[in-house]
Task: inverse folding
C-alpha cells in the first residue's frame, strides 16, 4: 500500500525544477513542489492513507485524529472512517487558522473534549509552522497530543525537528528523498536507462 500511495503522490502531487522556481509559504525558493491536496481528493489515495495511518495509530488508544485546515481534513476524515470499519471509533476534527467569528467562535471543529488523546495529521511538513500552531491549539483545548503524522516531510527548513521540539513524536509516511528516488526512476525509464 505504501508503494501505491507514494506512486500517487509522485504522479499527481510532485513537481521538480532544477532552477528552484517554486516559492514556499516562507518566501524561500525550492526545487520541489508537493501538492498533497490534489492527491487526498482521490478515492484510492483516501483508502490507502486511511489504512496506512490507522494501522500506525490503532495501538495508541486515541480518541480522535485531526489537524490544521485544509490539508488535514480529508486525511483525518478518511482515517476516522477506516477506524469505524475496524470496529473502532476514532473521531475526526480540524483546527481553524482563525477562530470562527460568529456563533460559538470556536477554533476546533469536531466532537473532541478536554482530555481526549489525539493524533495531529497534516499533508506536508516544511517548517512545521501550521502543524505546530494546530498542535498548540489542540493542547490549549485540553487535548493530549500523542503523535504527529504527515504524508510528506519536505526535509527542508527543519520541519520535523521543529515539531519534535514541541515534545511530540513525529512520523512522515514519505520524504522528498523518497519522491526524488521515484523521480530518478521515472527519468531513467524515459531515457531508456
Result:
Amino acid at each position: 500500500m505504501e508503494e501505491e500511495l507514494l506512486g500517487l503522490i509522485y504522479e499527481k502531487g510532485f513537481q521538480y525544477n532544477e532552477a528552484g522556481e517554486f516559492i514556499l509559504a516562507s518566501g524561500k525558493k525550492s526545487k520541489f513542489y508537493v501538492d498533497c491536496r490534489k492527491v487526498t481528493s482521490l478515492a484510492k489515495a483516501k483508502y490507502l492513507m486511511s489504512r496506512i495511518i490507522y494501522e500506525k495509530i490503532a495501538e495508541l488508544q486515541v480518541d480522535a485524529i485531526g489537524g490544521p485546515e485544509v490539508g488535514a481534513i480529508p486525511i483525518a476524515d478518511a482515517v476516522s472512517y477506516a477506524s469505524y470499519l475496524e470496529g473502532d471509533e476514532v473521531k475526526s476534527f480540524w483546527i481553524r487558522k482563525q477562530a470562527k467569528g460568529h456563533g460559538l467562535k470556536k477554533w476546533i471543529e469536531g466532537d473532541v473534549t478536554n482530555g481526549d488523546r489525539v493524533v495531529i495529521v497534516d499533508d506536508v511538513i516544511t517548517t512545521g509552522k501550521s502543524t505546530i500552531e494546530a498542535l498548540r491549539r489542540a493542547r490549549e483545548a485540553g487535548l493530549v497530543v500523542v503523535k504527529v503524522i504527515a504524508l510528506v516531510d519536505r526535509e527542508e527548513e527543519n520541519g520535523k525537528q521543529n515539531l519534535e521540539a514541541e515534545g511530540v513524536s513525529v512520523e512522515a509516511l514519505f520524504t522528498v528523498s523518497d519522491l526524488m528516488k521515484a523521480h530518478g526512476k521515472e527519468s531513467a525509464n524515459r531515457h531508456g536507462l
In short: The radius of gyration is 17 Å. The longest strand covers residues 144-153. The longest helix spans residues 43-57. The mean pLDDT is 92.
